[in-house]
Amino acid sequence: MARPIWFYVQHFAYFMFLNVIVAYASRPHGSHRPHQEPSYLKFVVNATDFPSEDYYDYIIVGGGTAGCPLAATLSSRFRVLVVERGGIAYGNRNLMTKEGFLATLMDVNSFDSPTQAFTSEDGVPNVRGRILGGSSAINAGFYSRADEDFYRKTSVNWDFRMVNESYEWVERAIVFRPELRTWQSAVRDGLLQAGVDPYNGFSFDHVVGTKIGGSTFDTLGRRHSAADLFKYAKPVNVKVVTHANVERILVGSSMPSAVSRQSAMGVVFRDRIGMYHHALLREHGEVILSAGAIGSPQLLLLSGIGPRPYLSSWGIPVAHHLPYVGQYLYDNPRNGISIVPPIPLEHSLIQVVGITESGAYIEAASNVIPFASPARSVFIRTPSAPLYLTVATLMEKTVGPASAGSLRLASTDIKVNPIVRFNYFSNPVDVQRCVNGTRMIGEILRTQSMEDFKFQGWFGNKDFRFVGPALPVDQSNFEEMADFCRRTVSTIWHYHGGCIMGKVVDADFRVIGIDALRVVDGSTFGISPGTNPQATLMMLGRYVGLKMMKDRKDYKMID
């Protein structure tokens, strides 16, 4: 049965339209020249074609935002295997173009869709990337480096020259300057008119004020993800195996003695037809988890690395007692408003950001979504082709956050999402930051730059047509604004933690108490890096790879 217009527009209201109907995928999106076939296809194999046993210097679990640059870097000197549970994006129009963003988020299944959906116990829908490139292959493409506070709050002894070189390595390959059109330009001007200054122009850096950030969509609207960083890889030294679900890390004693430590020895994964494969480490090798804030703690638990009583309650043999695995899990709240403008707008994902000093980042998007007239309407003739509605969104991301949640197993099957609770706004600091951010949205809506997006009323007045909840009328009332934050909370998909540094991994990303095992991804973060994390995660993969090679510079590994 066709749904009424408000169904579609209301579900847009919390940014990137997770519940837009799949029919959008069939809409023609204009002419885009296809990507040239990526060079990494030469060393990508389906798991069914992988031998039952093989040996590598480094085994990276997860070909995602951090895992791809890490593998590309290590392959310059070592034999590297990347084990990815999803497939590849190349050839999938929705994944490869900006216009396909909505359909990718909605077109989900439990088994092999590029996007895997889950809903936290807070009741907020969310997604995970299940594709080579990880979330960088399904996200909105905004690129901005981490803030200084992120570096201060981690216990890593950062080499900032290497940090900057790692960012630049990423930026040369896959980051572009976006072209602002109607909505993004108006939001930029509105931010400045509302006092989010100075104007910093186009910049990758995290600086207070309003700026245009980078984009991983090029000028033709084609996506470039972390997988494209394999252009730097040494093909003879790297293999990427897809559609491979790692079921556990193999852990054993590093030496037969009373003081021996547990050490990773390899991984066991299963292919699409259920066959098992063993990827094992060569001498001095390591297993590196880059499966993300959901996948990495889940795999540690299923491998017997976690709280002993909890693992025992599941009947999982305990390899190493590590009580904080799955704890300190965070997700940055997102709140905002959406409007139907009186003028047509272009499709735009995040291009402009307002970096405030009050604990919130302001971002925006616009799109065209489909709707149908009510079924069997007496007054409206059902159109033969779908109709489309322009919707524009302003949103704020709460910095941090301070509220922490946790993850626990739902099953011993790695393919089943674990149970996640983020505890949004359980810490009053986050409530205050959200109120500050939503008040700033109110200030922007009152600027001259927003006048063109109002409708003319019958008596000469002009006002917005809101989709879903509008901001409270009395925005000076803290309680009303706090209630708005709690009622309209959604995710911006920047969840992190679960293998937090200092609790699960040390300052070199090594799992505490286990040799030859690291975690290199956002699960180690206790704070979201800047406005959007993908830049920092790709930098991190490159950075840790360089540091690891420096530590082993005198060791010859390739036979």
Automatic annotation (TrEMBL):
<dbReference type="InterPro" id="IPR012132">
    <property type="entry name" value="GMC_OxRdtase"/>
</dbReference>
<dbReference type="Pfam" id="PF00732">
    <property type="entry name" value="GMC_oxred_N"/>
</dbReference>
<feature type="binding site">
    <location>
        <begin position="533"/>
        <end position="534"/>
    </location>
    <ligand>
        <name>FAD</name>
    </ligand>
</feature>
<dbReference type="InterPro" id="IPR051871">
    <property type="entry name" value="GMC_Oxidoreductase-Related"/>
</dbReference>
<feature type="transmembrane region" description="Helical">
    <location>
        <begin position="6"/>
        <end position="25"/>
    </location>
</feature>
<keyword id="KW-0732">Signal</keyword>
<keyword id="KW-0285">Flavoprotein</keyword>
<dbReference type="InterPro" id="IPR007867">
    <property type="entry name" value="GMC_OxRtase_C"/>
</dbReference>
<keyword id="KW-0274">FAD</keyword>
<comment type="similarity">
    <text>Belongs to the GMC oxidoreductase family.</text>
</comment>
<dbReference type="Pfam" id="PF05199">
    <property type="entry name" value="GMC_oxred_C"/>
</dbReference>
<feature type="domain" description="Glucose-methanol-choline oxidoreductase N-terminal">
    <location>
        <begin position="292"/>
        <end position="306"/>
    </location>
</feature>
<keyword id="KW-0812">Transmembrane</keyword>
<keyword id="KW-1015">Disulfide bond</keyword>
<feature type="binding site">
    <location>
        <position position="246"/>
    </location>
    <ligand>
        <name>FAD</name>
    </ligand>
</feature>
<dbReference type="InterPro" id="IPR036188">
    <property type="entry name" value="FAD/NAD-bd_sf"/>
</dbReference>
<feature type="binding site">
    <location>
        <position position="522"/>
    </location>
    <ligand>
        <name>FAD</name>
    </ligand>
</feature>
<dbReference type="GO" id="GO:0016614">
    <property type="term" value="F:oxidoreductase activity, acting on CH-OH group of donors"/>
</dbReference>
<dbReference type="InterPro" id="IPR000172">
    <property type="entry name" value="GMC_OxRdtase_N"/>
</dbReference>
<protein>
    <recommendedName>
        <fullName>Glucose-methanol-choline oxidoreductase N-terminal domain-containing protein</fullName>
    </recommendedName>
</protein>
<feature type="disulfide bond">
    <location>
        <begin position="434"/>
        <end position="485"/>
    </location>
</feature>
<keyword id="KW-1133">Transmembrane helix</keyword>
<dbReference type="GO" id="GO:0050660">
    <property type="term" value="F:flavin adenine dinucleotide binding"/>
</dbReference>
<feature type="binding site">
    <location>
        <begin position="493"/>
        <end position="494"/>
    </location>
    <ligand>
        <name>FAD</name>
    </ligand>
</feature>
<keyword id="KW-0472">Membrane</keyword>
